[in-house]
Amino acid sequence: MNAHTEFLFQTGPSGQLEVAIDRPVGPSRGVAVIAHPHPLHGGTLTNKVVQTLARAFVLCGWTAVRFNFRGVGASEGVYDEGRGELQDMLAVVRSQAPDGPLCLAGFSFGGFVASQAMAALHAQRDIQKVVLVGPAASRFDVAVIPDELRLRTLVIHGEHDDTVPLQSVMDWARPQALPVLVVPGGGHFFHGQLPLLRELVQRHLAA
């Protein structure tokens, strides 16, 4: 993301995982772990939406941790339809954010994985914020948000998303009475709207 990004490798369930860490100026409020889009469709930790999420967290005082799922970039292993990818994200949390305040975020397929990580961790960890951008509700089983985390959760979706239809996200959110912030005219990758996306995330983190 910038010249100060720290790249490292850590042990994951299928071998080494490639990790990128960006730190805020001054003391960190905690760690945000951010998951990228679908590994078989070009998703990596350098995705522009993922970088925008990382930037928003850093500007709000959080340490932002991105990582490549198994089989992506220099991460070892092969795609596992979300099961192994969830274990990858949990391994990154254990290694890079073993305790203290935690945020979970993800884009598209990464939003699905982040939701499942939230479901696995919320009973034992202090999850401060959850940010799901374009969560892949039409293709994967996005987890239900626990009651106590709903006000801490931001769901953002593009009005004209042709990869994950808005209707599928509304159908997931409706039974939970979970608000969805819809970006007018927005597509799946928020082309031309990344500054707006960053601002919306920053507002949520400041609330």
UniProtKB/TrEMBL annotation:
Signal peptide: none annotated. Keywords: Hydrolase. Residues 40-137 form the Serine aminopeptidase S33 domain. The keyword Hydrolase applies. The keyword Hydrolase applies. GO terms for molecular function: hydrolase activity. It comes from the Bacteria. This is Alpha/beta hydrolase. It comes from Hydrogenophaga luteola. The lineage of its organism: Bacteria, Pseudomonadati, Pseudomonadota, Betaproteobacteria, Burkholderiales.
